[in-house]
Amino acid sequence: MVTVRGRHRATDLRSNGFAALAAGMILPLVAIGAVYGGYRAMSTSGCAGTVRLTVAASPEIAPVIKDAAARWVKTEPRVDNECVAVDVTAVGSAEVAAAVAGEGGATVPGLGQADGKTQVPQVWIPDSSLWLQRLRTAREDLVPLVAPSLARSPIVLAVPEPTAKQLGWLENKVTWKQVLEQIVGDTRIIPGIVDPNRDSVGVSTLVAMASVRDQFGPEGDSLTVGAVKSLMTGKSEQQTGLIARFPRDSDPKTLSTAVTLAPLSEQALHAYNAAGPAVPLIAVYPDPAPIALDFPFAAMPRLSPNRASAAEQFRSVLTGVAFRNLLAQHQLRANDGTVGTGMTLSPSAPVGGQVTPVPDATVISKALQMWVEITQPSRMLAVVDVSAAMKAPVPTAGGLTKEQVAVQAAQGGLDLFPDSWAVGLWCFSTNMPGGHDYQSLVPIGPLTSQRDQLRAAIGGLKPNPKGGSGLYDTILAAYQNVQQGWDPGRGNSVVVVTGGRNNDASGLSLDNLVSSLQKAEKQDQPVQIIIIGVGSEVNQAEMQKVVDATGGAVFVAPDPSKIGEIFMKALALDDGR
Predict the structure, then answer these.
(1) Residue of 236, 156, 163 lying closest to 201 (CA atoms)
(2) How far is 329 from 325, CA to CA, in rounded Å?
(3) CB crowding 298-323: b at 16 or more within 10 Å, else e
(4) CA gap 295, 367 in Å, rounded
(5) Is the Cβ–Cβ distance between 576 and 376 less than 8 Å?
(6) What is the band of 395 on the pLDDT scale with cuts at 50, 70, 90?
(7) Is Transmembrane tagged as a keyword (predicted)?
(8) Phi, psi values for residue 160, rounded to 5°
(9) How far is residue 199's CA from residue 126's CA, in Å, rounded to a whole number?
């Protein structure tokens, strides 16, 4: 017997013209966490009792699992002469993960609390083994150590066809470095992503991007920071929200405001195109391939012997040619990457081949932490040296002065700051107006209202030919300024760009500064100091003593022409911790 229990979500989809999806076609457009239906399969002939399995499956694969369960129970499977009943419910992986963690008294960073409605199943089929790794990090025994994968859906970059043609991406292989360069530097690219904390596709994308950061050093840092900040501006909480932002028309005006690049599963892209949009999406397969969705079969720990036996029997039928063909009907590949009857891939799509393995839990945590560090709303005071030391020319920068090189780096960084940030600007040297070693040019405020003012102020920075470096007095004053307006919802930081050593004989000594910072520090209101040194005149050891007093980092570019790379690396760490 097979029954279908309807839910409100199905009604909502029908009202939006997606009846085919809600009726059991391709379901990746359902919002993560939405339960769209349940399926019950039961063998009832001459049973001494019933062994009931509850199965929570990711919406993309739930119709396949339902069909397989219905076929299986027709064979009247039994465990110790008890018939097997199977309840299959489609539910987003993030919701089940939160429920599993909550039941075990654990917390998965970035995931949030369980919704109180989702039940922990006996068998869980999430969209990716990444979820199992994240839960094992929270507590090792929350999920099984072994969970065989049932299917595969590669992660692709979904690009509207007109944009893919302009970029030359229709047939050519594209590396992740090329992708990041386009995201950062090409105005035709408007990227989007689903919040990686709740989406496996987003996590997979971050892991791939982090590999560029690791491989290409400072250049990789710069590209990754820029790309993540761009993705953050196009972040959606759910896949439906992201997909709704793809262009509905191919005219230049629409393409200039719509999302033109976003990571999706191969299946989600097929589902989008199956609906006949005016502008179809092209699947770009970046090299190396990101971690694919793999739909692991996780028989949860502490099942009764009969349920464990029933779960293993059920898993054993989710293989072979018949199952592969069921997967193909819903645009999913078999676990080995091959496709069943009825599924057509684009000419550039790889078939079979090596599978990118699910990484160690520390790699996943590092990628998600990178997202938090770069995208967390920040409240930052930028403090730029305008002493005579900044007049020095930089031979490797075409004769530009240190000041001009620093201004270029600051302008580039400003363009990458999201509107959610609050930023202010000071400059410093001795002999400044007002009797201080520093001057406030733009007070800390939201970028939404003062980005242009900051850009103009940065562009107007010029060295004071008679000014020395009142570095130490300035650092203390800047720290106190940020501390006075400390915001608990943001990272609070001071970023100092300096071209030399402190030489204000009437001001604080290094020891006085360190002591004063230690006294001013409040453990429950952290303010981070980041110091960026321009040129070899900056004493890194002295600066390290300063940041050690409060937390922070020192970056020194002996070659000032490299300050742009250093500046981007510093911003990647600017999370106010």
Answers:
(1) 156
(2) 6
(3) bbbeebeebbbbbbebbbeebeeeeb
(4) 21
(5) yes
(6) confident
(7) yes
(8) -55, 140
(9) 11
Place of tokens 């989600």: 268
DSSP states along 531-543: EEEESTTS-HHHH
DSSP tally for the chain: helices H, then strands E: 21, 22
Q: In angstroms, rounded to a whole number, what is the distance separating the alpha carbons of residues 222 and 209? A: 12
Answer for the pair 55, 84: CB distance below 8 angstroms, yes or no.
Answer: no
Instruction: Give the burial string for 324-355 (b: 16+ CB within 10 Å, else e).
Output: bebbbbbbbbbbebebbeebebeebeeeeeeb
Please list, in sequence order, all residues whose beta carbon lies within 8 angstroms of the beta carbon of residue 335, skipping any fewer than 6 positions away: 149, 150, 151, 152, 294
The pLDDT tens digits of the residues spanning 519-563 come to: 999 988 999 999 988 887 888 899 999 999 988 888 887 776 666
Residues 246 and 164: their CA atoms lie apart, in Å, by: 13
HSE, CB side, 13 Å, CA atoms: give it for residue 544: 5
Burial class for 418, CB neighbours closer than 10 Å (0-12, 13-18, 19+): middle
Which residues, in sequence order, are CB contacts of 49 under 8 Å at separation 6+?
81, 82, 83
DSSP letter for each residue of 253-307:
HHHTTS--BEEEEHHHHHHHHHT--SSPEEEE-EESPPPPB--B-EE-TT--HHH
Q: Quick one: which of 125, 259, 82, 281 has its CA closest to 183?
A: 259
**Treating both helix axes as pointing N-terminal to C-terminal, what angle do 361-375 and 130-138 enclose, rounded to 10 degrees?**
90
Query: Measured between alpha carbons, how far is 151 from 319 in angstroms, rounded to an integer?
Result: 9
Two tokens, residue 455? 């850009």
Least confident of 193-202, 444-453, 509-518, 534-543: 534-543
| Secondary structure (3-state) at 491 | strand
Structure tokens at 249: 């028309």
User: What distance lies between CA 151 and its chain's CA centroid?
Assistant: 24
**Peptide bond just before 288 cis, omega within 30 deg:** yes
